[in-house]
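Problem statement: downstream parser choked on a complex file, so we are re-checking the raw output for the adenosine-5'-diphosphate run. The parser issue turned out to be on our end (a line-ending mismatch), but while we're here, posting the original submission so the record is complete.
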Amino acid sequence: DALRQQAVAMPIRKTTSLTGLPPALQLKKLVKRFGDHVVLKQIDMKVAIGEVISIIGPSGSGKTTLIRTINMLEKLNDGEVVLFGEDFIQGHEKPNMKKVRSGMQRIGMVFQSFNLFPHKTALENIMMAARYHGTTKEKEVCRKQALFLLNRVGLLAHANKYPHQLSGGQQQRVAIARTLALSPDIILFDEPTSALDPEMVGEVLKVIQDLAKEGMTLIIVTHEMDFALSVSDRIVMMEHGVIQVDTSPSDIEHADESTPELLRMKRFM
Ligand code: ADP
């Protein structure tokens, strides 16, 4: 309770899709190769502000590479990434580092393997992110915001624990709070629950679902199909480096023999 009193509200971006605004993210003919292997074959995609998109598909189809490319963890070979109507990365040009830096601050990423600093507490992990990349560098403000974010993911009581003292689900929730500390406009999730024991999946999905309800723009690579159906505005299926289907959950739920592609997705799910 002492900690709760110290937590101050950290503004979480709430965005609603407004007509006339550019998409949060637009991918134009993205191409990514590893050697001779073309992993992304001219991917086009638009993500509206506040939209939640799940990316599904068989292993090796390019899902992880796609979101790592959006976040510049992989270098694009060709094509373009446009953020809120402004060019961010262009495959054929040398990156403009100023644009890239400001763009990268707007995109948060949550990994499969939480990637917390092991020698820092949950609170410190979040504070560090806020101090180095977030909107304020003032330590006390960062601490209070970090407490607020820990409370938000239900972990205030664990503020002073180290990662090894937390379960996988708790560590992933800390990792999500850490991403929120950067005040991103878009969050990319790369199979956020696939490293977790089954009994911990639900608590992490609940946190993601809350973000979706608040209007955060989310792109989620996931194998949790019931979750994808319930949380997403759109579900995108990738296969062999292309987007095979881009559809709504209700279209998948109503799929029948007359829509074999969707039926296949439903069965895949
Ligand atoms: P998915 O997330 O759908 O399982 P990935 O994006 O991880 O697929 O991988 C797509 C393809 O790209 C796979 O064939 C994989 O082997 C290859 N790949 C991914 N990362 C690398 C890399 N760093 N170097 C070489 N090949 C890679």
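For whoever reads this later: The two ends are 43 Å apart (CA to CA).
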